[in-house]
Amino acid sequence: MPARTVTLKNRKSGEVWLRRVEWRAAYLGRLRGLMFRSGLRAGEAIVLAEAQDSRATTSIHMFFVPFAIAVVWIDSRGRVVDKVEAKPWRPFYAPRAPARYVLETAPEFLSKVSVGDEVDFEDTVA
């Protein structure tokens, strides 16, 4: 089965923020995240999708990720609840409020998004 990809849009403006985001809902896909990668390609992003809003299940570590990333936590309503630039090899990052989705992408993305923004995930048409 091919991997699911989604487009990330700003709900208010309709602006496309990321065109091809890899959707990871399966346990092993979420567990691996970006570990053992050497970097991200331009515009590359992944979403780690949990079953429900939680601080515990959406916390991440940066072990075996040798580059900085933007991490954006989004709740089940599509509201950005936290964001951070995660540094390599740090043991723990958690959102300040429960989230369902963890978006991981290039650090430059942090300048586009603010806590409180609302987003939509739309299936990408091949």
Largest beta-sheet details: 7 strands, mixed
Distance between the first and last residues' Cα:
14 Å
Identify the strand order in the major beta sheet: 5-4-6-3-2-1-7
From the spread of the alpha carbons, the general shape counts as: globular
Written account of the structure:
By secondary structure, this protein is mainly β. It has a single domain (5-121), classed as Protein of unknown function DUF192 (Jelly Rolls). Helices cover 5% and strands 40% of the residues. The protein is built from 1 helix and 7 strands; from the N terminus they run ββαβββββ. A 7-stranded mixed β-sheet has the order 5-4-6-3-2-1-7. A hairpin with a 5-residue loop joins strand 4 (69-74) and strand 5. The two termini are 14 Å apart.
Helix and strand arrangement:
Layout: E1 5-10, E2 16-24, H1 27-32, E3 45-54, E4 69-74, E5 80-86, E6 99-105, E7 119-123
Parallel strand pairs: 2-3
Antiparallel strand pairs: 1-2, 1-7, 3-6, 4-5, 4-6
What distinguishing features does this structure have?
Jelly Rolls, 7-stranded mixed beta sheet, 5% helix
